[in-house]
Amino acid sequence: MEFRILGPLEIVRDGEPLVLRAAKHRSLLAVLVLHANEVVSYERMFDELWGERPPATARTTLQVYVSGLRKALGPDRIVSHARGYLLHAEREEVDAARFQRLVAEAREQVKVGADEEAAERFRHALALWRGPALADVALESFARNEAERLDELRVAALEEQIECRLRLGREGDMIGELEALVGQHPLHERFRAQLMLALYRQGRQADALEAYRDARRTLVDGLGIEPGPELRELNHKILEQDPALAPALARPLPSGTVTLLATDVEGSTELLQELGPRYADLLRAAFTLHGGREVDSQGESFLYAFTRASEAALAAVEAQRALADQAWPEGRRCGCGWGSTPASRPWSETALSVWTCTGSLGSAPPGTAARSSSRGRRASSSRSSPEGSPCATSAPIA
Hints:
Layout: E1 2-4, E2 10-13, E3 16-17, H1 23-34, E4 39-41, H2 42-50, H3 58-73, E5 78-80, E6 84-87, H4 95-111, H5 115-126, H6 141-167, H7 175-184, H8 189-201, H9 205-223, H10 229-240, E7 255-265, H11 268-275, H12 277-289, E8 293-298, E9 301-306, H13 309-324, E10 336-338, E11 350-360, H14 368-373
Parallel strand pairs: 10-11
Antiparallel strand pairs: 1-2, 2-3, 4-6, 5-6, 7-9, 7-11, 8-9
């Protein structure tokens, strides 16, 4: 079962939405989900359902509402306590809990300089949102404040994801998104600053300065205040064309003799939809842990470069273990395998290829290394494989 509160309240059981039409039932469930696995006191529920003037029959009416929820959710979901009620829910059953877990993981990636992986986790976290938290539920002050806190966490995650993408030099595809965010949050100075920086890095200095003037007009007219020191300082640096505004150089790809590790999924289009972002997260985490640098990715296929063949082998083993430990949809298995994957297998398997190449990947466009290596000689230890099934090869880059 899934409890979705990052947007309109939704309950999904076995892939099908569970309809709760009564407004009080929805309000009560929202409060219980916000405090999943915690006892919510009777007094708190009275306040959320009726405000400062609960009816004389509030306790009895509440019991009727809880009985209705138990019929819909199952008898064991809501437990009675002396002080109130508790909703049992696994952490991954509540979208807000999944969101906060992914954001925490992204922040850990930022701490170790893995902006690519951090941006991806932020993306998965933000994809859980369908609108303002509990937008269609009538709540009193306490629960509404908690819903608004979730909205603030979403904005913070958006800010941090954009910072990751700016550090990766991806401002070219962010300007439209940032303009929309400034329109939605006109008093939010950090989005304004990010838009100014993106415009400047795209050679649009005049537009960046105009974005500052627009921010100043909005703040002065709306709040009677000047922009904050960070926004003013950024405007000054743009005027001076400060070299510090140039994007930081990304950690270079390995050069010289490198090992490339590639993955693919047999029957990938449909399978990838079933596996979801967890598949990519597991592979990226395993490859990054052992020093891999992402060269290219297309859907479910990844190409990573390693300075040593031993690192690539360790990364492959790590990925194999991580994938094998997961419970995939409909009993599927997913793992890293060397060489080809026979079509007769009753389960889908991630095929993995490794090349050892000599040359520089830093100046090559994505995918070049893989295409170059495929022109080289096949290693004597590699197995033959059906067309389209990768196998281990060794070749120099021309």
